[in-house]
Specification:
Blueprint lengths: L2 H95 L5 H16 L4 E5 L1 H6 L2 H12 L8 E5 L6 E6 L5 E5 H29 L2
Parallel strand pairs: 1-2
Antiparallel strand pairs: 1-3, 3-4
Length: 214
């Protein structure tokens, strides 16, 4: 091989080496870019998945909190009803027996409430014998005057002793169309709804305080 051929061969080898180096450099740059793109995509997926997990956790937390609140409310309602039943079971016998109450004053209040509810009209005031011992015809007339004033001045108010009636009293219009039962048993029963509302208002207030300190 002469010098010209040798020189040409070296030039070809040098050119091939340069082309190979350039191709290798380009391949490395492409690989690095692809790796960076993969890492960026992985990072985006990780962030997205993390956000999804956090959202799922919040939803589960809310569901658990709602379940806890529902169970607490259910138990509270059960306890409220049990408490009211115990209260009524304790209070009613004492009311009906006259223990710890002023009999005549209590009956006067029951009568005035019933008369005011019915308005001036001819009525029969029914009482059992124990209540009748406290509330005379004269006392009934006094209460009617308080309840109706001048509007009831000429209205007939009859006192009827009824041994079948529970303690308290019942006022009926003489035509039988209107009745106001104010026996102690029904009077207490009418208090059940307001007492429920009062107890529920206390629960709602307590929950509001808990939320404000959460």
């Amino acid at each position: 091989m002469n010098d010209s051929e040798s020189k040409l061969q070296r030039e070809l080898l040098d050119d091939a080496a340069q082309q190979a180096e350039l191709a290798l450099s380009q391949a490395r740059a492409a690989a690095a870019a692809a790796l960076a793109a993969v890492r960026d995509e992985v990072s985006k997926v990780r962030v997205q998945r993390l956000a999804e997990v956090q959202q799922e956790a919040k939803l589960r937390e809310r569901a658990i909190a709602a379940g806890v609140r529902h169970e607490l409310q259910r138990r509270w309602l059960v306890l409220r009803e049990e408490g009211l039943e115990r209260l009524f079971a304790e209070v009613l016998p004492r009311l009906e027996s006259g223990a710890d109450i002023a009999g005549e004053r209590s009956l006067r209040q029951l009568l005035q409430e019933a008369l005011e509810a019915l308005g001036p009209r001819a009525v029969n005031v029914r009482l059992n014998p124990a209540a009748a011992a406290f509330l005379s015809a004269a006392a009934i007339a006094e209460v009617a005057a308080l309840a109706w004033g001048q509007a009831g001045a000429a209205v007939s108010v009859n006192r009827v002793v009824d041994a079948s009636l529970r303690p308290g009293l019942r006022v009926e219009s003489t035509d039988g169309r209107l009745v106001f039962d104010n026996t102690y048993a029904l009077r207490l029963e009418r208090l059940r709804r307001p007492l429920r509302s009062l107890a529920s208002a206390g629960l709602a207030s307590a929950e509001s305080d808990d939320d404000s300190h959460a």
